[in-house]
Amino acid sequence: MLDYKYYQGGGLDHIVLLHGIGGNSQIFYKQIDEYKKKFNVLAIHLPGHGKSPDTDAYEKKFTYDLVVEEIGKIMDLLGIREAHFVGISLGSIIIHHILQKEPERVISVVLGGTITGFNLFSKTLLLMGRLIKGVTPFMLVYSLFAHIMMPKRNHKKSRELFIREAQKMKKTNFLSWFDLIRNADTTYQTVQETSGNIPKLYISGDEDHLFVKVLEKDIKGDANAQMIILNHCGHVCNIERPQEFNLASLTFIEKHRRVSEEVG
């Protein structure tokens, strides 16, 4: 069973938080207090993070399908039929796969630092990572990627938080996720067909240079997708620009809340 933190808040609706690789619920420290004023909040630690099982602890092969199943088990345990989902980076990848596999679970989504695919530069980085991952300490690989993904001075807080939290990961867990992320594009392939009616808000920084252009192109055909680009902001926009992120995400989620629906 995945590790999670549950915050009883206001109203009947739930917000489910999904973090990035190497992170945990700590990356939402600037959102949780605001969210729980009006919503119940469930922060889930993905496999290999926090106190959740290691990625190799499952009888099944470690896949996106397995991760979605495990998230569903936590929601079932807590009696949550459906929820608003907020994800950052890897969290956005997982939420897209939920939209493909279990769209009935989703009321609305807010996705920050979203990854739908890779440009030529990021594909080259992933290839380099695959070549050196077996002979290089994984934290060196992670730190290198963090500095390339979040290179500027205003990205420092996000970069340092992710590196610090990633140091708590086991190498096997990091490498499992690294291998899975290479196929991130598969989690968006049918999103517009399976969940075209589900409201989606994408929030990205204009300095999220590895992913934002690919994202803009990919979501053009989704009539229920909105996008906000934050100026002078990098990949982890909820940490770099928390006030703007909180205002935009809460306004969006409140617009789509199911106030009259009982959960459980």
TrEMBL record:
Transport found in the keyword field: no
SUPFAM superfamilies the record matches: alpha/beta-Hydrolases
Lineage: Bacteria, Bacillati, Bacillota, Bacilli, Bacillales
Domain AB hydrolase-1: 14-242
Domain of life (superkingdom): Bacteria
InterPro entries xrefs: AB_hydrolase_1, AB_hydrolase_fold, AB_hydrolase_sf
Entry GO CC: membrane
Stretches that traverse the bilayer: 131-150
PANTHER family, A to Z: HYDROLASE, PUTATIVE (AFU_ORTHOLOGUE AFUA_2G14860)-RELATED, MONOACYLGLYCEROL LIPASE
Protein name: Pimeloyl-ACP methyl ester carboxylesterase
Name of a matching Pfam family: Abhydrolase_1
Keywords noted in UniProt: Membrane, Transmembrane, Transmembrane helix
